[in-house]
Specification:
heterodimer; A: alpha/beta; ABC transporter transmembrane region fold; Rossmann fold; 21 helices; 62% helix; 10% strand; B: alpha/beta; 2 domains; four-stranded antiparallel sheet; 11% strand; elongated; P-loop_NTPase (chain A); membrane (chain A); transmembrane (chain A)
Chain lengths: 596, 578
């Protein structure tokens, strides 16, 4: 398993891993097609033999049984074949999911900032689903037809080598020549259609997301014209593809027709030469059509290959990124393997954070390369101390938080927790520091299970206590099944304030000495904001708080307020000090609390 | 199935043509079988190959005709599907703009985009497959069966009996599969969502220290998902198994019964062979329907979903009030807009989002709308913007009565800045001149400057030509608001509506944005809804809303003095957090 995981490909390693199942599938797939062919073969033989009016029915007893057996056998085998194939593919998908998760896990804290646009995680999950078509639609049908190809040619070779070679040539057209031409001809247009369709997707998203602007500007007719033109351009390309696929169908069918004629000539020739019994002529001719059914779909299967490219490339790129980013930016990647000696599994309820002249710059590939994202920040946060951090987007707040969590190691200066570098704690950090951010993810399970994630071994009483501390009483009472009510996807059933309370209960259950609040009240109305903050402040008495905030409501409760700009601290002090000293602070504070 | 098909434009000639082709095709299938059987039985009887060349040639001819018919039929179906699909898309898109942002918000952007892009593709596939399949199953088996009856009654009976059995079994198994799916739907949904749910929650798991142990959960759930899927597939595949089974069994029975009668000498080999060759052809159309069943079903559903959008838009459109010919759509210092007991109820029985709102706006001034969440601020802005048709009440614009504000004349007067303005994936300049694409670069730069974008533009490598939006340079929330502001300024429209423009921004950005905005609001009618009270001090008039009603309307100074709802809102924010 280890070995297969380090393999770069996303398709081939699984052949080796599931060779048994693949072989079984192949055998069944070939048998399905063979039984269908044998049904027509024996039927043809049966009625020709019967027409010679044998004196005893027992003479055609074997073909009669054969016809029935093949008739029933084909459907049964086909049924089993499909199940075996799907089972194998689902097993592969299961492994791929674990593999993708392992790739993403070390970069967890950086995915959001690295891929700002679009739903990269959703796309990756879809990619894996897409890869099942590689096997079911492309690999399996192609392999089956190739094996059958060999079987047919060898079988004919038993009778007549020359004709076997001729048949080989016919089938080659269906299995190799047409698919190859098809792929070459359509590859470019297919790629263009795909790219154009992505463009349409963007155009449409712009239209729907910006619909109020379109409506108000009165320009939506412009949009419709432009969009329909783009659609028409794609339609022209699709038509081109369709024309080819129609002609390809016709050509393959004509090949089959000619093969049938060749078969008529060959079998009658063989029979008049006395090489085969005349009763077999019909059998040989009739078998051509069901056999052709095995070879006709190959072109389609091969033409699909470019469809998978994008998914494969994205997955491979992700995997590559996981490996390189581990060394340069994220410190956790390097430290995760080495569990630090001397950190007890149940960590003390005490943490003293000290940041001394911390500087951090992202590597050359990051935005704003060269400039320090955090530039000489010093903080001392003894246990129980509460600080607020405020600053515009891009001021370095997020980077500072990642430094404190040890996810990044400072380029200069030091970030220490209890005298040890934060980055050295690796995967033990969540025992010291918990995080409540703007949009904590609530999983698609029950409310109780979501809270339980904070500490899976917690008792029911502890869950209830955490819920109580988060003041969820009213909320729980309103739920049909109390804490056992399912969340539904992304917790749409709950309002923003309620979702934060559930996440708060989870964090409280995690019970760490330090809590990072990363703008947890963005998007909440003032009343909800104040109520939530008041709950948080009360429930976290004794804990250290590092609170990144966009408003100043509640700032008077903090031991220190820090203003950041361009990675530096430009103002710091208690609320009272800042109110007295800084006119700028007074102006801002008035926004949150206009004077009556 | 397919009753609604006949309403599509131009379907009748297409169907007639295709029916003709299917007919010719079926005749070709029958002749192809007949000539093949003739050649083979003659050869079996010892005829010379050369003598049979004519018959073999005829077989090849019939075979080719059959394939050519199929090709032309495919082309017709594809063309028709493409035409109908794009007509439907055009209709849906234009209706979408009529329904506006409220509808788009309710249905979800992703759903709508997917419906229009993929739904139309599916719908086209449906038409493309369904038309030939429908004709094929309607014509081909009947004709083949009729021919088989003229040759051999027993085989005809076997074939005719199999068909209903096959169809009944397919339906029964289909129903059983559906029932099983429904039964385990909830757990199935949870299992299938688990992976993407885990990926989206990866950051949270990391914070909780659970991200490593979660691997086991992914592995476990993936495997349960596989077992659940396999359980379903075991039943679902049964329906194609039934199709296969009865077809093959029927062909086998025909073959055996032919054989038995040939032994007795009651039949010629020619007849027997012809029937045997035709037996699989008899079932072929039904088998193709079975194979394409899911694709057609998906497409049909997508088509229906789009039809329902069109219907909804038409219903909405029927509600639209007529615009009087003498309506005066202009706004200046003397203009007046009055709302007379305007009400809005989303659901018949539900609570009213707006109730009995009567207000008068006149001239150029700044008006603030304040209230708690759910008080009806956004609904009122949407009604004023013409995105929403009120369920009761009327408007009076410059002395002329209007049923709603969705007339394009009113829309030409307003600009609208929402909480998160949408940034189009285009250049910064294009985003700014969105309402006035003909604006000169100079005017664009002036508007950008006034909106405080000068600093940003100086930093951008391409300046105003820098691509922003999806795929372009990401902007911060404050910068996005400034782009929207520049857009509003450049359009030079006299009315600006703002819905919660600064609540999500950090306080410094909010402060600066407010400083930029206030002077730009002069000489316009500005209506700003927010729950950030500080804005109210700069407003000429304040509307206080509560549960859909206007509870106070006046100057901020007056309202403070009155010590009513506004005063209490202000006081409540003075209290500290305990």
């Amino acid at each position: 398993m280890r070995e297969s995981l380090s393999d770069r490909g996303w398709i081939t390693p699984y052949f080796r891993l599931y060779s048994g199942r693949f072989a079984l599938y192949l055998i069944l797939g070939v048998l399905t097609l063979l039984t269908a062919s044998m049904l027509m073969f024996t039927s043809g033989y049966l009625i020709t033999k019967s027409s010679t009016m044998p004196y005893n029915i027992l003479l055609v007893y074997v073909p009669i049984v054969g016809v029935r057996a093949f008739g029933i056998g084909r459907s049964v085998i086909h049924y089993v074949e499909r199940l075996v194939g799907h089972d194998a593919v689902l097993r592969i998908l299961s492994r791929m999911r674990v593999r993708l998760y392992r790739v993403l896990e070390p970069q967890a804290l950086f995915i959001r900032s690295r891929y700002r646009t679009g739903d990269i995680l959703g796309a990756l999950a879809d990619d894996i689903e897409q890869l099942q078509n590689v096997y079911i639609r492309t690999v399996f049908p192609s392999l089956v037809s190739i094996v059958l190809y060999a079987v047919v040619v060898v079988a004919l070779g038993v009778f007549d080598v020359t004709f076997a070679l001729l048949a080989a040539l016919y089938i080659l057209i269906l299995v190799v020549v047409l698919p190859y031409i098809s792929l070459k001809l359509t590859q470019r247009t297919n790629a263009e259609v795909k790219r154009d369709r992505n463009g349409l997707y963007q155009q449409l998203t712009d239209a729907v997301m910006g619909i109020s602007d379109w409506v108000i500007s009165g320009r939506h007719h412009d949009f419709l014209d432009e969009y329909e033109q783009a659609e028409a351009a794609v339609a022209r390309k699709e038509y081109k593809l369709h024309v080819w696929s129609r002609w390809r169908g016709l050509i393959s069918q004509l090949v089959v027709g000619l093969a049938a004629v060749a078969m008529i000539y060959w079998s009658s020739g063989q029979s008049s030469a006395g090489h085969i019994d005349p009763t077999l002529i019909a059998a040989f001719v009739l078998v051509v059509f069901p056999l052709a059914d095995a070879f006709l779909p190959v072109s389609d299967a091969i033409e699909r290959i470019p469809e998978y490219r994008e998914s494969l490339e994205r997955l491979t790129r992700m995997e590559g990124q996981g490996e390189t980013s581990g060394d340069s930016n994220s410190a956790a990647g390097g430290a995760s393997g080495t569990l630090v000696a001397g950190v007890p599994s149940a960590i003390a309820d005490y943490a003293h954070l000290q940041l001394d002249q911390v500087k951090f710059a992202y590597g050359e590939d990051g935005a704003g390369a060269g400039a320090n994202s955090v530039d000489g920040v010093s903080l001392d946060i003894p246990q129980g101390s509460r600080i607020a951090i405020i600053g515009r987007s891009g001021a370095g707040k997020s980077t500072l938080l990642k430094l404190i969590q040890g996810a990044l190691a400072p380029t200069e200066g030091s970030v220490m927790i209890n005298g040890r570098a934060a980055a050295d704690y690796g995967d033990d950090i969540p025992k010291l520091i918990s995080v409540l951010n703007q949009s904590p993810h609530l999983f698609d399970t029950t409310v109780a299970n979501n809270i339980l994630l904070g500490r899976p071994e917690a008792s029911e009483e502890e869950i209830l206590r955490a819920a109580e501390q988060a003041r969820m009483g009213e909320l729980i009472a309103s739920l049909p099944e109390g804490l056992n009510t399912p969340m539904r996807e992304t917790g749409q059933r709950f309002s923003g304030g309620e979702r934060q309370r559930i996440a708060l209960a989870r964090v409280l259950l995690q019970n760490t000495p330090v809590l990072i609040l990363d703008e947890p009240t963005v998007g909440l109305d003032p009343r909800t904001e104040r109520a939530l903050l008041s709950t948080i402040f009360q429930a976290t008495a004794g804990k250290s708080l590092i609170w990144v905030t966009h408003h100043l409501v509640g700032a008077e409760q903090m031991d220190e307020i820090i203003f950041m700009e361009h990675g530096r601290i430009i103002m710091r002090g208690t609320h009272a000090e800042l109110m007295e000293r800084e006119p700028r602070y007074r102006n801002l504070y008035r926004l949150d609390r206009p004077e009556v | 199935m397919g009753k609604g098909l006949m309403k599509f434009k131009g379907i009748k000639p297409v169907l007639c043509l295709m029916a003709g082709l299917t007919f010719i095709q079926t005749i070709a299938i029958i002749l192809q079988a007949k000539w093949l059987a003739e050649a083979v039985s003659a050869l079996f009887a010892g005829a010379k190959l050369q003598e049979q060349a004519g018959t073999v040639g005829l077989f090849l001819f019939a075979f080719t005709v059959r394939q050519l018919c199929a090709l032309v039929e495919q082309k017709l179906a594809f063309r028709f599907a493409e035409r109908t699909g794009s007509a439907l898309r055009e209709q849906v898109l234009s209706k979408l703009f009529e329904l506006g942002p409220r509808f788009a918000g309710r249905e979800g952007t992703g759903n709508l985009v997917t419906l229009i892009l993929e739904g139309v593709a599916k719908f086209r596939k449906y038409l493309e497959l369904f038309l030939p399949r429908m004709l094929g199953t309607g014509l081909t088996p009947v004709l083949i069966l009729a021919y088989v009856f003229t040759l051999d009654v027993t085989s005809g009976i076997i074939l005719i009996v199999t068909m209903p059995i096959l169809i009944i079994f397919m339906i029964l198994i289909g129903l059983a599969a559906r029932k099983q799916m429904d039964r385990q739907w909830e757990s199935y949904r949870m299992l299938s969502n688990h992976f993407v749910d885990s990926l989206r929650g990866l950051e949270t798991l990391k914070f909780l220290g659970r991200s490593k142990t979660h691997i086991e959960s992914i592995d476990g759930v993936s495997n349960s998902y596989r077992s659940a899927t396999m359980r379903t597939l075991r039943v679902a595949f049964l329906s194609s198994f039934a199709l296969d089974f009865f077809t093959m069994l029927s062909v086998a029975s025909v073959a055996v019964s032919l054989g038995l009668r040939l032994i007795d000498g009651r039949m010629t080999l020619l007849t027997g062979l012809t029937v045997l060759i035709l037996a699989p052809e008899y079932f072929l159309p039904v088998r193709m329907v079975g194979a394409d069943y899911h694709a057609t079903l998906d497409g049909k559903e997508a088509g229906e979903a789009m039809e329902s959008i069109i219907r909804e838009a038409e219903q909405e459109f029927a509600k639209a009030a007529e615009v009087p010919a003498d309506a005066d759509f202009s706004w200046n210092r003397e203009s007046k807009l009055a709302l007379h007991s305007v009400g809005m109820k989303y659901e018949e029985a539900g609570r009213a989002s707006l109730e009995d709102v009567s207000l008068t706006f006149s001239g150029v001034r700044k008006i603030g709308i304040i209230g708690e969440s759910g008080a009806g601020k956004s609904t009122l802005i949407d009604v004023l913007g013409g995105f929403l048709r009120p369920t009761s009440g009327t408007f009076e614009l410059n002395g002329c009565t209007l049923g709603d504000l969705s007339a394009s004349g009113w829309r030409d007067l307003i600009t609208y800045i929402p909480q998160k303005p949408y940034i189009f994936s285009s250049s910064l300049a294009d985003n700014i001149r969105f309402n006035r694409p003909e604006a000169s670069m100079e005017d664009v730069a002036k508007a950008a400057d006034a909106a405080g974008l000068g600093g940003l533009i100086a930093e951008l490598p391409l300046g105003l030509e820098e691509p922003i939006g999806g795929g372009g340079r990401p902007l911060s929330g404050g910068q996005e608001q400034r782009v929207a502001l520049a857009r509003a300024l450049l359009s030079e429209r006299p009315v600006i509506l703002l819905d919660e423009p600064t609540a999500h921004l950090d306080i410094e950005t909010e402060y600066e944005l407010k400083e930029t905005m206030l002077p730009l609001f002069a000489h316009k009618l500005v209506i700003l809804a927010t729950h950030r009270l500080h804005w109210m001090q700069e407003m000429d008039q304040v509307i206080v809303m509560d549960q859909g009603r206007v509870v106070e309307y006046g100057t901020p100074e007056q309202l403070l003095k009155d010590q009513g709802a506004y005063y209490h809102l202000m006081v409540s924010q003075q209290e500290g957090i305990s």
